[in-house]
Amino acid sequence: MLHALLTFVNDYAPELSEKRTLLAVSGGVDSMVLAELFHRAKFSFAIAHCNFGLRGAESEDDEVSVRHWSEEHNVIFHTRKFETAQRAEKDGVSIQMAARDLRYAWFEELIQEFKYDYLATAHHADDNIETVLLNLTRGTGLPGLLGIAPVKGEVVRPLLFVSKNEILDFAQKAKIAWREDSSNATDTYRRNLLRHQVLPVLQEINPSLHRTFNQNLERLRAVDSLVGGLLLEWRRKAVRIENDGIYISISTIQKANEPAYILHEILQEYGFNYAQTKQVVASLGGVSGKQFFSSTHSLIKDREDLIVELLRQADDFHSIFIQEGSAKITLPGNMSLIITRTPLLPNMEFRADAQTAYFNAAKLRFPLRMRPSRAGDWLQPFGMGGKSKKVSDLLVDAKVPINRKKDFLVLADAEQNVVWVLGLRTDERFRVNSKTTEILKFEILKS
């Protein structure tokens, strides 16, 4: 068994023997064997024991047992008691999930405070098989078939290639004392059901189940590495980030083999599941504007791209009234509108940029109103010979992405004539001409 531990260190974490490791020890046979092996290997380590308070006196006895072993072997001992049931009820999660969140948060505190380099847990080969079977039962892709990673960041699982029976055999021969969790004997939890009812059948079919399973994982990890390289290259071609949005080329998706699988590899990090991804792919040949939502993001099908954005709180901006004589107006997005009234002078220079507009003051009817564009809004864009055009069509012609259309504001007069689509076009009817005596200059600036 010690050889298995040293082989793991050599293959996956060669620095472990020279670093400080925090061992998660419950008092059960798996973690007690791990502690014994670290002691025999003369590694530098400390023990962290979580008392979840779920089994009354049993939980207290577990803590006493692990504390006694630590003192006997002169190993630093950390412990904390948790109100696990109350946390689960408060967060609306299962006891198991609450316990997991509590212990890993505490482990991270210990690592930061005492400068441990690694966290070691006693997951073994049977745990790995159970994890893959659970993932298959729930539904999973390739990542869910890879099981528990031997090393993930600062977390190492040195017993991952050792079976439960091998651990028990070592503990008995080495006369290692351990605590038995009474809940492990029931089939209440899904893992226990697999452990007691399914794994024995699989081992009867294949007595070399653990070796076969590890060989399969090795192949699958090789496939995952190859696929990961291909997906990374595809992502470089298909995805770009602009204006806080993720843009995914529709044509590139449509040309891909297995488009739903490839697209899901991108969308899953934004909370979209595989079923939603298939719906997105089915919509690619349809009209623009189709929307999909995860718990954190929105996805809009535009003409050429799928646009993914973080869900925003409902915008409270409805409209701002601008009275005659106003000089500065605060706009959404940390912007300001500066208004200046001046006489029209001979040879006056006008700045030509999208953030500045000039109007014939005599033509504007106050109060003006700054508001989001509405369906049916129209104007006579400057330079189009007095022809009318809907604001929505103006945005289409300007190739404004669907997700940004809601951000465009218009300036309207007292009769609701659109004077200016901010940052885009002004209206011919309000332009400065040879008969103008006063002009109003509107300038958008960052606050």
Task: List strands and helices in order, with pairings.
Blueprint: H1 2-12, E1 20-24, H2 29-40, E2 44-51, H3 57-72, E3 77-81, H4 84-91, H5 95-114, E4 118-120, H6 125-138, E5 151-152, E6 155-156, H7 164-173, H8 190-205, H9 209-238, E7 239-242, E8 245-249, H10 250-255, H11 259-267, H12 274-282, E9 291-293, E10 297-301, E11 305-310, E12 320-322, E13 328-331, E14 335-343, E15 356-360, E16 368-372, E17 378-379, E18 389-390, H13 391-397, H14 402-405, E19 409-412, E20 418-421, E21 425-426, E22 438-446
Parallel strand pairs: 1-2, 1-4, 2-3, 4-6
Antiparallel strand pairs: 5-6, 7-8, 8-11, 9-10, 10-11, 12-16, 13-14, 14-22, 15-22, 16-19, 17-18, 19-20, 20-21
What do you see in this structure?
The chain has helices spanning 2-12, 29-40, 57-72, 84-91, 95-114, 125-138, 164-173, 190-205, 209-238, 250-255, 259-267, 274-282, 391-397, 402-405, and strands at residues 20-24, 44-51, 77-81, 118-120, 151-152, 155-156, 239-242, 245-249, 291-293, 297-301, 305-310, 320-322, 328-331, 335-343, 356-360, 368-372, 378-379, 389-390, 409-412, 418-421, 425-426, 438-446. By secondary structure, it is of the alpha+beta class. Helix 2 (29-40) packs across helix 7 (164-173), helix 4 (84-91) packs across helix 5 (95-114) and helix 6 (125-138) packs across helix 8. The termini are far apart.
